[in-house]
Amino acid sequence: MDKRIKLLDSIRAIAVKTPTNDVEVPESVVGFGTIEYKAQTCSACKKCILACEPAALDIEQTLNMPDYLEASIPADGFRSKNRETLVNLLQNLKQDSDTGEVQAISVPAGLPGYGSIAWSAEQCIACNKCIEACPEDCLTLEKTYKLPEIIGTIESPPPVTTPKDWEPFIICFVCWECSHAAADLAGLMHLHYPATIRTVRLPCSGALEPGHIMTALENGADGVLVTGCLLSECHYGGDSPKAGNFMQYDFVKFWSDIFEEIGIGGRLYIDFASAAMGIKFAEIVEDFTEKLYKLGPSPIPKKPEVQE
Known about the structure:
- The chain is of the alpha/beta class.
- It folds into two domains: 109 residues, Alpha-Beta Plaits, CATH 3.30.70; 131 residues, Rossmann fold (3-Layer(aba) Sandwich), CATH 3.40.50.
- The strands form five sheets. The chain has a four-stranded parallel sheet, sandwiched between helices. The chain has a two-stranded antiparallel ribbon with strand order 1-8.
- Strand 9, helix 7 and strand 10 form a beta-alpha-beta unit.
- Helix 7 crosses helix 10.
- The longest helix is centred in the C-terminal third of the chain and has 18 residues.
């Protein structure tokens, strides 16, 4: 959980505007999502809570009235008979609540079988264990990330002025097998590309974690470039959908969408080159640098220890 807390703190640290939209999570990206709760069929057995290792679920001693007044009872009834009885009773008494004033009622302490499951978007790691443990099929995992709820309100920093001699500073993560060799080949061929790029070598592009990207941006990088082996030619998985570069491609897409929402869109990019593609590597760097020239300096306030 320390890792999750650090990740959320890092997102908040580089955010320059308040997000307004949830972010769609690619199917292959694990650890992020939204737990949807169907209160009407829940028997408050707490099995989901016991199965949740990061403690993202808890029981609240309340019943949300609109959930039950709008429930459709299946032809074969609910699995939980006490919950079916409750829904029938509340719907028979619906006319007494049509004013809309009653939104929730408290459950007396010690009354088993009733209550509502509360979910924490901050703590959830979308592991599916709560869903597997639920005997009533009350929980489902939706591939969306509730960014506005998690990040909250952001105070925008003052606009950044662009010095006349400014050049984008880029951190480029290169894979050990191919793109690092492509960068070396570009140098041996005396190909021109911006000197403000700094390469960081990784065993595989798939080994790159979000924390690495956000640390680079938080410490003064104007953009982060990720490069790896050609798709379908990863040295750690080949053409498998679970190969390192395939997985990283989806992760970068996900984090690019998050960065767009928090005001730093366009500053993360991924591309691929084989060891023999020195020219292609130089072109990738030049193209990304041109995009950053259009965006201007990073709006993320620099830490005092990295001020120029």
